[in-house]
Specification:
By secondary structure, the chain is mostly helical. The chain has 18 helices and no strands. Helix 1 runs parallel beside helix 5 (90-103). The longest helix has 33 residues, at 347-379.
C-alpha cells in the first residue's frame, strides 16, 4: 500500500464510520505496538557501553552519544513535528516513524562507531513523529476518559519496552555480538510497519488542513501551565536518562556489581514504572486535580533518585530504584492528558505541546549522559553528575505546587474526539 488510507475509500472516523466505533481497538493495538517498539530501541545500548568503549577505544563521554544522540534528534524534531503534523497527516507520520525503527535493525551491519551512531540516531526521528502524532490520533478515535486510559497504557508499554531491552541486552551480548543484539530489538519495527500499512485508518479530513500559525504556537508555549509542564518533564526525565545510562557502569566500577546484575537492577526502573504509570492512570481517573499527582510523583522521583547512588549496599539500592521508578512514571498519564483538558484545546495545540515536551525534555535527556560521563572523566567520580540531575528531578514537585488550580477546563470547553486536523469549516 502506497497511498494513505485517508485519501482512499477506506472507512475512518471522519468518513462513513462512527468516531467511537469498535475499530478503535485495532487502532489502540497499533498505537501500543508503536510505543513498545520505541521503548525497545531507546536504551538497549546503555548496559553495553563498556563493551562499546572497549571495542571502539573511545572515552565515556563519546560512548554516551550512543544513548544521547537519538534523544538529540528527537528533541530537534519534536516541536517542528508538532507544527508540521497537520500538513503531513497522521498516517504518513506513523509510517515514517515505523520505517525509522525498522532501519535501526541494520545496527549489526555497522562497520565502525560513526556508522553505528548514525544508525542509532534514526530512532530519534521515529520517536519524534510517533510521539507528537499519538495525542491527536487518540483525540480522533477515543472518548475523553478512554484517552486518559490510553495515555497510561501507551506510557506503560513504552516503559515495558525499555525494561525488556535494558534487562536483556547484556545477556544477549554474552551469546552474540552486542551490535547484533541491538538489531534484534529493532526487528519488530519491520513487522509493525507492515501492520500499520495494512490496517491503519485515520480521519478522511486529515489532509484538509489549516495548520497552526507561529503566533498561536507562541501563545501556547507562553502559557504558565505549559512552562511548568515542560520544566517538570525535563527535570525528572533528565535524571531518569542519566541514571539509566550510567548506573550499570557505576554499580560495576564503584559497587563491585557485575554488568549483567547492574543492567538487571537498572532495568527495574522501567519495569516498576510500567506499574507506576498504570497506577497513575487509575489515580488520575479518581483525583480531580493533576497537582496532587505531580506532587506525589515528584517526591518519589527526588528521594528515590538520591538513594540509587548514595546507598552503598543492595539493601538501600533496590528500594530506591523502585521508588524512583514509580515517581518517574506515575505523573505521565496526567501530564500527557492535561494539554487535552486545557481551555481551547485542539488537536493542533496538543501536537504542539507534545512536540514541545519532546524538544525541551529531549535536549535535557541528550545532555544528561554526556554531562555525567564528562564529569566522571574529569573528577574520577560519578557523584557530581548524578547529584546535578538528582537536583533537577525536584522540578516535578515544584510544578505540582505551582500549577494553577483552574488549569483543567470544563468538558464543554475542550474538544476531544474531533477528527484530528479537521477543517473547522463544515463541508458544503
Amino acid at each position: 500500500m502506497t497511498t494513505p488510507p485517508d485519501e482512499t475509500s477506506h472507512p475512518s472516523p471522519g468518513r462513513g464510520e462512527s468516531r467511537y466505533s469498535r475499530y478503535r481497538f485495532v487502532m489502540a493495538a497499533l498505537i501500543l505496538s508503536a510505543q513498545l517498539c520505541v521503548g525497545l530501541n531507546v536504551f538497549p545500548v546503555s548496559p553495553l557501553l563498556p563493551l562499546a568503549i572497549e571495542d571502539y577505544e573511545i572515552n565515556r563521554a563519546t560512548a554516551g552519544l550512543l544513548v544521547s544522540l537519538p534523544l538529540l534528534v528527537a528533541a530537534t524534531l519534536g516541536l517542528p513535528s508538532g507544527i508540521l503534523l497537520a500538513r503531513i497527516g497522521l498516517w504518513r507520520a506513523f509510517t515514517l516513524g515505523w520505517l525509522s525503527i525498522a532501519l535501526v535493525s541494520c545496527s549489526a551491519l555497522a562497520p565502525n562507531f560513526i556508522t553505528l551512531l548514525l544508525i542509532r540516531s534514526v530512532i530519534g526521528l521515529g520517536f519524534a513523529v510517533m510521539l507528537t502524532a499519538t495525542g491527536p490520533l487518540l483525540m480522533e478515535w477515543f472518548r475523553p476518559k478512554e484517552i486518559l486510559v490510553m495515555n497510561a497504557l501507551t506510557t506503560a508499554v513504552l516503559s515495558l519496552g525499555i525494561a525488556l531491552s535494558v534487562a536483556t541486552a547484556s545477556p544477549l551480548a554474552e551469546i552474540m555480538a552486542w551490535q547484533k543484539a541491538l538489531s534484534i530489538y529493532a526487528f519488530p519495527g519491520v513487522l509493525g510497519l507492515a501492520a500499520w500499512l495494512a490496517f491503519a485508518r485515520t480521519s478522511g479530513a486529515s489532509h484538509r488542513v489549516v495548520g497552526i500559525s507561529l503566533r498561536e504556537v507562541g501563545s501556547v508555549l507562553r502559557s504558565r501551565a505549559v512552562i511548568l509542564l515542560l520544566a517538570a518533564d525535563a527535570g525528572v526525565l533528565s535524571q531518569y536518562t542519566a541514571f539509566t545510562g550510567w548506573l550499570p557502569t557505576f554499580y560495576n566500577e564503584e559497587r563491585g556489581i557485575s554488568l549483567s546484575e547492574g543492567g538487571f537492577i537498572t532495568g527495574i526502573l522501567p519495569f516498576v514504572g510500567m506499574f507506576g504509570v498504570l497506577a497513575g492512570g487509575a489515580l488520575a481517573l479518581r483525583v480531580g486535580s493533576p497537582k496532587t499527582i505531580l506532587t506525589v510523583s515528584g517526591i518519589c522521583a527526588g528521594l528515590g533518585g538520591l538513594g540509587t547512588f548514595l546507598f552503598p549496599g543492595l539493601g538501600g539500592i533496590y528500594p530506591s530504584i523502585i521508588i524512583m521508578g514509580i515517581g518517574s512514571w506515575l505523573y505521565a498519564p496526567a501530564l500527557l492528558t492535561l494539554p487535552m483538558q486545557m481551555d481551547g484545546s485542539t488537536p493542533e495545540r496538543v501536537a504542539v505541546v507534545w512536540g514541545s515536551l519532546l524538544t525541551f525534555t529531549g535536549f535535557a535527556m541528550f545532555l544528561a549522559p554526556i554531562i555525567v560521563g564528562s564529569l566522571r572523566d574529569v573528577s574520577g567520580s560519578f557523584f557530581p553528575g548524578f547529584a546535578v540531575f538528582a537536583a533537577a528531578s525536584w522540578a516535578l514537585l515544584m510544578a505540582g505546587i505551582l500549577l494553577p488550580k483552574d488549569v483543567v477546563a470544563s468538558q464543554s470547553q475542550t474538544a476531544p474526539g474531533r477528527p484530528a486536523f479537521d477543517n473547522p469549516k463544515p463541508d458544503a
